[in-house]
Amino acid sequence: MTNKDIARLLKETAALLELSGANPFRIRAFSGAARTIERMPQRLADVDDLTEIQGIGKGLSAQIQDILARGSFDVRDELLGAVPPGVLDVLSVKGLGAKKARVLWHELGVTSLDDLEHAARAGRVAELDGFGPRSQTTILDGIATLRRFMGRLRLADAARMAAQLAEQIRDGSAAVRDVQFTGGLRRCLNDVGRVDLLLVTPDGSIPDALPEALQGATKCTKGGLQGAEAVLDSGIRVHLLATPPETAGWALAWSTGPDALRSAFPDSMPGSEEDVFRAAGLSWIAPELRDVPQVATRTHALAALRLVTLDDFQGCLHNHSTYSDGAHTLEEMAIAVRERGYTYFGICDHSQTLRVANGMSPQTVRRQQQEIGRLNEKFASDGGPPFRIFSGVESDILADGSLDYEDDVLASFDFLVASIHTGFNMTREEATSRLITAVANPYTRILGHPTGRLILRRDGYDIDHEAVLEACARHDVAVELNANPYRLDLDWTWVERARQLGVRVAINPDAHSTDQLDLTEWGVRAARKGGLEASECLNALSADDFARWASRS
Ligand SMILES: [Zn+2]
Ligand SMILES: [Zn+2]
């Protein structure tokens, strides 16, 4: 159980307490502890005495021990028993806190999303004290968004869940020779509504012994293969297919899809996946590439691409430290980057305007740059592999498109990532011109997470991608493919256009802690979906080439 998981349970408990009208001090104790735990660099599970953490007394310490031991604690269990479960769904509607959800529950008897939608459509929400017609519309929009995202998983979460299921399936039945990811999961879609697994068994049948989560799965057949489908408690669908070893290559190709390729494949055949593509007159291509437009007519060209891999990476750019809102110090981050085999590290803490993320004042910038100088001397003389830190910043793009420091401060950085973090309420034209103004600023080197979207949480602001990418090409600015599984922004569908325009793509973990440095792999998958080659990836430059590029020399 990670700190995040524990914090989530404590926050949920705070919300449940608020829903049941509990004492505000009690509510604050849980929400305060959740915030502290979220920010702790150290794993809670490794802490001996929890009461040494600020804001955690004896009671909370015992409750956290319970969470670590059994995933919940008494107060939460009681509250979950007392509050109708659907009220928690109501809480997840954007703009509805526990206080409002409580009013809706007590005044209108709203205990589910359906109840809420009915009440809002009938105009009854607008009549409540503290709501009004505008918040009623916001609530209806929020419900529509939630419905769109429900029952879906971000790729990283789906992959984690699929790996667990695969292991349980292997452990549960000696007959299962192999379990492979397939379908949208194997194609590395941003998010999936179904987890697909392919089982290789001697006779191509689904084993009787399935993991507990899949008990009650219904048998089916797909493409002549035996299958089983189940819906997990979380609403996620799981789809198993079984194949005998002889046709495993065909079953993998067929089940991976998408339909555009599936329809070209023969009806089952022996041999490898490559053989199946060849039999269809196609070249084998990496699963990530199979969603490009008109894929069936393009496999020969796509097969010739030298797709970027994590091994091509020299530099890890756009990361945070305790100088702004990161959990680890600059030195801890740098050491963790070096340990991962990179030869350079870009630190890009937040700029001064972003107070919520402890953005850096010009004085803090100077202090950080002095520390970078000291660390670089140390790294150069410690006998380890070559390694250096570049002084970067993630500058907020202000409302008018300008950057967040005076020129003398901007000039002191080795490179600058420009991103929007505030003022999302813009028209497409406003957002596009705000971004283009920032891209045209000579200090900007990378355009950070261009749309601000959070997958399965919020859509980004609408932008004219074509115009923004053209501006990047004109000003030799790289576009970021932010590798955080929530972001994957630039979306992979625009990577091909960036390549055509000669815009370099920077795949950045935007790490706020050392373990988040590993998020880069999700960005690599998304970039590969768009056909990105190593030579087009900013992070593949050597440290010297990156330095030259960054300084426009
Ligand atoms: Zn950012
Ligand atoms: Zn960032």
Give an overview of the whole structure.
The protein has 553 residues and is an alpha/beta fold. The chain has 3 domains: 3-149, DNA polymerase beta, N-terminal domain-like (DNA polymerase, domain 1, Orthogonal Bundle); 153-294, Beta Polymerase, domain 2; 310-550, TIM Barrel (Alpha-Beta Barrel). It is built from 22 helices and 14 strands. The strands form 3 sheets. It has a 7-stranded parallel β-sheet with strand order 8-9-10-11-12-13-14. A 5-stranded mixed β-sheet has the order 2-4-7-6-5, sandwiched between helices. A hairpin with a 2-residue loop joins strand 5 (218-222) and strand 6 (225-231). The two termini are 48 Å apart. The chain binds zinc ion (2 copies). One zinc ion binds at residues 318, 320, 394, 510.
Number of extended strands: 14
Q: Number of helix segments?
A: 22
End-to-end CA span: 48 Å
CATH class of the largest domain: Alpha Beta
Give the full name of the CATH homologous superfamily of the largest domain: Metal-dependent hydrolases
The largest beta-sheet arranges its strands as 8-9-10-11-12-13-14
Q: What sort of overall outline do the alpha carbons produce when their principal axes are compared?
A: globular
Structural class by sheet pairing and helices: alpha/beta
- CATH architecture tag of the largest domain: Alpha-Beta Barrel
> Helix content range of the residues, please?
40-55%
Which ligands does the model contain, each kind named once?
A: zinc ion
CATH topology of the largest domain: TIM Barrel
Please compute the radius of gyration using only Cα atoms.
26 Å
Total count of domains = 3
How can the largest sheet be summarized? 7 strands, parallel
Low-confidence stretches: none
Strand content: 5-15%
